[in-house]
UniProtKB/TrEMBL annotation:
Keywords: Hydrolase. The keyword Membrane does not apply. This is Cyclase family protein. Its EC number is 3.5.-.-. GO terms for molecular function: hydrolase activity. InterPro entries: KFase/CYL, KFase_sf. It holds the Pfam family Cyclase.
Amino acid sequence: MILTITLDKQRFDFDTSLVKDLSIPLEFNGSQPRVYGVNRAGSHTYEGDGFIGDTRKGGACNFEKLTLVPHCNGTHTECIGHITHKRFSVQEQLKDSLIPCTLISILPENAMNSSEDYDPPKEKGDAFVSRSALEKALKPVSKLFLKALIIRTLPNDHTKLSRNYSEQKPPFLSLDAMNFITELGVEHILVDLPSIDRAYDQGKLNTHRLFWNVKPGSHETTAHSLLNKTITEMIYAADEIVDGSYLLNLQIAPFVSDAAPSRPLLYPLIKA
C-alpha cells in the first residue's frame, strides 16, 4: 500500500510494505539482551486446579506466565514517570503515532579526551555520544525530520541483540549532547544503548532530566516539564537500514506503567 503524507506543504510517499523494525525480538528463556544484573525475561507454564497450560504435557492449549523488567529486558519506551514520584504511564503520555524522524550513526568517543561534560564526573573507560558528533551528523538534516531522533552507535553488530551490559561499560550521552538535542526540539529519542545515561551514575539520570526538563535531583514535575516526550532504549538498527529521513510508528504495549516493551517501525520516505 502506497500512502502520501504532507509535511510543511511538502508531499511524501511511503510504502507500508517496506517497513523496517528496530525492536529486538524478546526470546523468553532464550538469547536476549539485559542490563543491571536483572534476571532474564522468562516464560513459565501456568498450572493450577488441574489445568496444565502446555499441549506437550497434555494440556488443551498453551498458557504461559511471562516475567520481565521492561527497562532491562529488551527494547522499551519510557516516559517522564521513570523519574518522578507521580506515576505517569507511557501509554497515556505518548500522543504521536506517525512521527517524522532521522536516523544517524555515531561513533562514541573517549569521554576523558573530550571537553564535554557529565555528572557524576567522567571516569576512565567512559565513552559517550558527544554534541560535536551530533552537530556534524545533523548539519544537513532538515528540522522537519527532527521530531524524533534515532542514534545508532558504531561499531554496529548483531551482538547488540543478546548483549549482557553488566559485563561491560556501554556508551551514553554527554550532557552537552542532550542539551543540543533539546535545543533542536526533539520529542522522541531512540538509542541502541541500555540507557542514555551512564549505567551506574549514582542514580542521577541527568540526561533523562535534561530531556524531560526536570531539575537535577528532583522527582517532581513543573509547569515547564515536557510530559509527552519519550525515550526508547535498546533498539537495534541493522546496517541495511541507511541513515536518513523516515516516518516512525512507535508502537508500545498498552501497559499502565512508566515503561513498556515497544516496537519502533520505520517507513522510508520518497518525495512525491
